[in-house]
Amino acid sequence: MQDGFGLNAQTLIHGVYIMSIFTFEPPSVKSSFAFDSPNLTRRSPLDRSSSDSLAESRRERPLEVKKYHFRRREYVLLDKGIFWQIESGVVRSLTHDETGKLIPLGFWGTGDIVGQPSAEVGAYQIECLTNVIAYALPEGYRYPQDMAFSQVRQMEELLVIMHSGSIEKRLIQFLIWMAKKFGSRTTQGWLIDLRLTHQDIADVIGTSRVTTTRILNKMQQDGIIHWSRKRNILLSNSFAVA
After folding, report:
1. Within 13 Å of residue 227, how many CA atoms lie on the same side as its CB?
2. Residue 171 in contact with residue 205, Cβ under 8 Å?
3. How far apart are CA 183 and CA 190, in angstroms?
4. 140-167 per-position pLDDT tens digit
5. Parent domain of 224
6. C-alpha closest to that of 33 among 136, 156, 176, 179
7. Which of 49, 145, 182, 185 is the most exposed place for a label (fewest CB within 10 A)?
């Protein structure tokens, strides 16, 4: 079986399109959201005046949100204009090519906002990699500009990994990337606090599960990685992660 690239230039263009169709906040507005109550409160630092006091009060009015629990490997319900903020857990966003092959677009954790930006984007899914608690944000919620850029930045970073040369190098680069996002420092190395299957990894680096398993076994023999009791990957201290 010939190994192929999961992410390509077309996928990156797809990501730029996703960013372009988000409804952005005006550049001068930085909104913050609080989840310390069953309601979502939106706050804006805009200067208050008599002309916009009514609009300001409407923006600050609490909006109802609902909390949902998802199990590992469940898919989050998506619909046009519906966004989710992750309270705990990790998800991955996915699309697929014309052959049905899965293409991971990003990995998201606590505080991140994900969702289907438009019905025209095509096949877009969100899969839970752990048990997840997430809030369904109110209809009409405006997606923050920095989160849109984060979506595209992750696709760019994964695209770079996909073009890192050999499959072995791609795998190492991906593990370093995951350690930066979800890792914690231990005396033995960097523990990736997320249980990935070999197929999950293969989807990202553009190879087969069998090839991924073979390379991981070799990396373990060479002391590059170890496995925790929970079968999480422990990356050697010899790699610069920070």
Report:
1. 12
2. yes
3. 6
4. 777 778 888 888 899 999 999 988 899 9
5. 164-236
6. 136
7. 49
Whether residue 208 is contained in a domain is answered as: yes
Statement to judge: residues 68 and 153 lie in one domain: yes
Contact 11, 28 (CB under 8 A): no
Q: pLDDT tens across 5-59, in order? A: 445 544 544 454 444 444 334 333 333 333 333 333 333 333 334 334 333 433 3
Residue in the block written with tokens 């190879």: 207
The answer to whether residues 96 and 189 belong to one domain is no
- Spatial strand order of the sheet with 91-96 comes to 102-108, 91-96, 125-128
- Examine the domain organization and report whether 143 and 108 are in the same domain: yes
pTM, rounded to two decimals: 0.72
3-state secondary structure of 165: coil
Same domain, 194 and 106: no
Return the closest-CA partner of residue 204 out of 169, 166, 174, 181.
Answer: 174
Joined tokens for residue 6:
């999961």
